[in-house]
TrEMBL record:
This is DNA-directed DNA polymerase. Keywords: DNA-directed DNA polymerase, Nucleotidyltransferase, Transferase. Residues 5-112 form the DNA-directed DNA polymerase family B multifunctional domain. It comes from the Eukaryota. InterPro entries: DNA-dir_DNA_pol_B_multi_dom, DNA/RNA_pol_sf, DNA_pol_B_thumb. It is an enzyme of class 2 (transferase). GO terms for molecular function: DNA binding; DNA-directed DNA polymerase activity; nucleotide binding. Its EC number is 2.7.7.7. It holds the Pfam family DNA_pol_B.
Length: 124
């Protein structure tokens, strides 16, 4: 990440020379790699902010269905497994193959019946 700091400093020095003021600056936020776009406003990714981390505790997800409340444990398991394997830096399989494998694994797993009960909250 020191490389990014140096690059920011160089760009900021150039901007100061060109504009004559230090008002305009570039700031490094994060690198998003790998990233998977699933549709409009639907994606998941691994973010690297201060250090390179390809195995974060939690993936960043936007618009992905497994994040929503009251989803079945089965959906959460399948979604998380697919996303984790797709974001693995050593992955060589297509997303289609990952989905096939994960669905087979979920089918053979023993599930607790209580994991399929969803409590509906109805606002009156």
């Amino acid at each position: 990440m020191n490389v990014m700091k140096k690059l920011c400093d160089q760009v900021n020095a150039y901007l100061k020379i060109k504009s004559g003021t230090s008002y305009l600056k570039i700031a490094y936020e994060e690198v998003l790699f790998p990233i998977y776009f699933n549709g409009k406003k639907k994606y998941f990714r691994v973010g690297h902010e201060d250090v390179v981390n390809f195995k974060p505790k939690k993936l960043f997800m936007k618009g992905i269905e497994t994040v929503k409340q009251n989803n079945f444990q089965l959906l959460k398991f399948i979604g998380e497994k697919i996303m984790r394997e797709a974001m693995d830096i050593n992955n060589r399989r297509s997303i289609h193959k990952i989905v096939e494998y994960t669905l087979k694994e979920a089918r053979n797993k023993e599930w607790d019946f209580n994991e399929f009960i969803v409590i509906a909250i109805i606002a009156l």
